[in-house]
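From the shared-data thread, chain only:
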Amino acid sequence: MHLDAFDRAIIRSLQEDARMPVAQVAERAALSPTPVSRRIKRLEDDGLILGYQPVLDARRLGFELDAYVLINLDGHSDENISRFEQAIQDNAYVIACHAVTGDMDYLVHVIARDVEHLSQITLKSLVRIPGVRDVKSIIVLETIKDARALPLE
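Structure, as tokens:
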């Protein structure tokens, strides 16, 4: 998809604050509000803008611990993969899951209240998914960068 300078300015503004009024986005993009509204609608219709959601503070919600869990399956049958992926979809504490290359099959991003809660999520849920062979956890000590805005080159 080709983005011109106006599209990039609009997207940059919305990535900074998706609730920014169209008039303010228009001012930043050096356009009037009507063409900015049309461009935003086109970006949404074309699937570049997938939606809008608030960014919540996990710590204020009681989730003090951020962890990544590396998981290997004991086999890669369609049934095994489907069962695993459904269990991941159903787990509210799993906030992201990626199939990856390398020694492990999946990288699972988990939030938890504390180490004990992470232990419960891992031992009572993730390890018990049929077909899971190996599980390794990595606890985040400090977040150096957590950018949500994508580069618009």
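The first helix runs from residue 5 to 16.
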